[in-house]
Amino acid sequence: MTGLLTLLKMLMGFVIAKLIAIYSGPSGMAVLGQVQSLISVLNSLVTAPVSNGVVRFTSENHKEGFISCSPWWRASVQWVVILSLIIIPVGLFVSEYVALWLFHDVKYRWVIEISVVLLPIAALGTFCNSVINGQQQYRRYVCLGMIAVTISSFIMSLMIWWAGIEGALLAAASQSAIIGAFMFLVNIRQPWLKLKYCWGRSTSKAKMDIGGYILMAITSGLSLPIALIFVRNILIGEVGWDETGHWQAVWKISEVYLGVITVALGTYYLPRLSSISKVDEIIAEIHQTAKFIIPLVMLLSLVVYLFRDLAIWLLFTKEFYSARELFSVQLMGDVMKIASWIYAFPMISRGETKIFITSEILFAFSFVFLTYILVSEYQTQGANLAYFINYSIYFALLFFNIKKIVR
Q1: CA distance to 16, 47, 174, 258, 365, per residue, from 30 (Å)
Q2: Nearest-CA neighbor of 60 among 280, 403, 351?
Q3: Is residue 149 packed enough to be buried (19+ CB in 10 Å), middle (13-18) or exposed (0-12)?
Q4: Which residues contact 276 (CB under 8 A, 6 or more apart)?
Q5: 3-state SS track over 242-285
Q6: In terms of Cα–Cα distance, which of 74, 310, 317 is closest to 203?
Q7: What is the pLDDT of residues 324-343, one digit of tens each?
Q8: Does the global pTM surpass 0.70?
Q9: How far is it, in rounded angstroms, from Cα 116 to Cα 304?
Q10: Residue 2 pLDDT greater than 70, yes or no
């Protein structure tokens, strides 16, 4: 079922990428990549309280009734309000500086301003998704996800067709809020979406529990997007906007096809690990998942590599043809990335805050550092080599220490 949702996301992602390629070219693809990284950072800040923590504690307590879940739901909503009151004014104040850093042009400050103002609506949608996921209502989760993706992608396509790169930036800035508004409206009559469950007095323990997940979610949500911004800036400085657009096109294809795996891991794997308490059973579940997922990723990567010319022709334009040389190393990095994620998820399900945060920051920094070293030697391919080496080291460390992490 999550595969069906991901296939639809892939299709919509292909349509958006094709429109961007037609109306904006490689440089437009690079600019959009910067915007998407920014939005990922902002969303991770505000939606952190209502993501994995809500999934975990809903999964553990919903069978005893919604009132048993309410301490964590209330704590998560209160955290969202606090973070919004901090991030929105700060974001509006520094929008000019952020636009200059990301786009080398202050005229795009409006993208930052729209993004930060709409953040609470995006958080509302994430809360609804997390509660549905935590209750393991997979059919509803998938169906609503498919409708939300279709609506938001249709609106995004209209904006790109209507206003080119400006429309694409506006669509990217508002897409999460569109999905959030939809999720709230369709769930407004659900028995769990009541004010008495979502707002009111919480417990100190619940606030601390959600606080730990906020730190993990913010670290995860900030580290890779910020690292990608630095990587693009390194590439822009060394090889220019067009070559960076080629690299971004290959990265985008990876994001889309890996969505088949990441959605399944977030929807099934995390609630499953959260519901298991015995160490041996958790390790068995990890290895069993790895035996299925890693060969699947290798197969998908091989298919993408064999049909890379077709993918470029379908998704982009002839200006992107030289990007075909970047696929091999990128796809090897994709395999190592998913393999490491399988062994990193137990840190989230077990609430291992310190280890998770340390590893995320350390390997985001090493990705940027390796890119800085290798791009000067191998040009655009250096960023892909850095990606592959970075996740290979991350996987090795997690694999050989998984028992210690779980315990």
Answers
A1: 14, 25, 19, 20, 21
A2: 351
A3: buried
A4: 282, 285
A5: HHHHHHHHHHHHHHHHHHHHHHHHHHHHHHHHHHCCCHHHHHHH
A6: 74
A7: 888 999 999 999 999 998 88
A8: no
A9: 35
A10: no
